Automatic annotation (TrEMBL):
Its EC number is 2.7.13.3. PROSITE patterns: HIS_KIN. It holds the Pfam family RsbRD_N. This is histidine kinase. CDD domains: HATPase_EvgS-ArcB-TorS-like, HisKA. Keywords: Kinase, Phosphoprotein, Transferase, Two-component regulatory system. GO terms for molecular function: kinase activity. Residues 171-395 form the Histidine kinase domain. It comes from the Bacteria. It catalyses: ATP + protein L-histidine = ADP + protein N-phospho-L-histidine.
């Protein structure tokens, strides 16, 4: 009499042996390289026993065995550093080997019996994959949550440090950069893998947690970079690299990088360079930094209308760049203070902005001073703001 559960029982050892060899040889499953035989097989023998029970019509018992073993398997694989795709490959190999080993043995069965066997095996493997991914994702999300709370603490500590000490700040910020970059890289990778793996049914809250880690990580990195920049300018450590440059080209390049931000908010970017000087002597990188900061602020604090940049030469001795917007404006009382670190104008206190570090204008003001220029701002609440920077003709 045809008994699929008996057929599978006889072949379990062969299947496991072939599966182990195939996984070890598969270059797509790198994380298996350092695992012992027991660790690699992990829940696979239990899974196969679960299949035997399912084929012997012990459905609910089989479900329990498979579900709990696969849940454990997911956490184990997360700890062993597997990515989602590697887990999927392992199951795919298992499916292929089971069917190739069983195929000749199943042939004596009737079409109905063969079909029922294939369906049962498929259903058990699908259940295993689903449970395994559930715990894998839970494990990863738990780790990401921990990372996120650490980032928040670090963020608070760094902010405190920024306000109190300048020397240890730059040391501290350097120390933080490496782990932060890896946290962000890791979360980024995880998110991408999750989005690519078709088998993974990610819940919306899980995805949101991952996004949150990335967001706070990125903001913290920006804060550290800005803080470093500020502290080196205050310590007189910025080395200028002066050269004769084509200012129109620099403006064009900066505008090209910033344009998508304006487009995303439906803001027109008007550039007026007819009266710009042909060549100026300045530090190209610092000038780009200044323009990027002022233009992105203009876009950030403007909801409708336009942003305008005008570059003009007054005479041989001076040239200016004027950046104006039709944004929220800045109250008169805050106009001088916005160049201080962490100063936010009262007009934007209600805005929660992921990009904002409160350090941009402080850096801009110091860079302009370093280039022997000056910055002025005029603004009207609800109408817009105009930042004018003026540089000497020769530095
Ligand atoms: P942030 O990262 O908060 O933008 P900044 O140092 O660049 O920090 O700017 C300081 C503050 O100045 C901002 O928080 C905002 O209140 C105000 N501000 C800067 N640029 C503009 C602008 N173009 N329009 C309105 N407010 C601005």
């Amino acid at each position: 009499m045809f008994d699929a559960s008996e057929i599978l029982t006889d072949q379990i050892d062969t299947i496991l042996e072939r599966w182990e060899a195939a996984v070890r040889q598969d270059s797509r499953i790198e994380s298996s390289a350092d695992l012992s035989e027991t660790a690699l097989k992990d829940s696979m023998p239990v899974l196969l026993n679960g299949m035997v029970k399912a084929l012997a019509h012990q459905g609910s018992e089989s479900y329990e065995i498979v579900a709990s073993a696969s849940l454990e398997h997911g956490s184990a694989r997360a700890n062993e550093g597997y990515n989602a795709a590697e887990i999927a490959w392992e199951y795919q190999i298992l499916r292929r080997i089971i069917f190739s080993v069983l195929e000749p043995q199943l042939l004596p069965g009737s079409p109905e019996e063969i079909l029922r066997t294939i369906r049962t095996l498929d259903a058990v493997i699908d259940e295993a994959i689903s449970q395994c991914y559930t715990s894998y994702v839970q494990q990863r999300v738990k780790e990401l949550e921990q990372v996120r709370s650490q980032l928040i603490l670090t963020n608070q500590e760094l902010t405190r440090l920024l306000r109190t000490s300048k020397d240890s700040l730059s040391y501290m910020a350097h120390e933080l950069k490496t782990p932060l970059t890896s946290i962000i890289g890791y979360s980024d990778l995880f998110l991408r893998q999750q989005k690519q793996a078709v088998d993974v049914h990610l819940t919306v809250p899980n995805l949101r947690n991952i996004e949150r880690v990335l967001q706070s990580g990125r903001l913290l990195l920006r804060l550290i970079n800005d803080a470093l920049e500020l502290s080196s300018s205050e310590a007189g450590k910025i080395q200028l690299n002066l050269a004769c440059i084509d200012v129109k080209q620099v403006i064009k390049d900066v505008v090209a990088t910033i344009e998508p931000l304006a487009q995303a908010k439906n803001l027109e970017l008007k550039i007026e360079c007819d009266r710009a000087p042909n060549k100026v002597t300045t530090d190209i990188f610092r000038l780009q930094q200044i323009l990027t900061n002022l233009l992105s602020n203009a876009i950030r604090y403007t909801d409708r209308g336009f942003i305008q940049l005008e570059c003009l030469s007054h005479d041989d001795r001076q040239w200016s760049i004027i950046i104006s917007d039709t944004g929220i404006g800045i109250p008169q009382k805050d106009l001088t203070r916005i160049f201080e670190p962490f100063m936010r104008a009262s007009s934007n206190l209600h805005r929660r902005d992921e990009q904002s570090t409160g350090l941009g204008l402080a850096i801009v003001a110091r860079l302009i001073k370093l280039l022997q220029g000056e910055i002025k701002v005029v603004s009207e609440l609800g109408v817009g703001s105009t930042f004018t920077i003026t540089f000497p003709g020769e530095i």
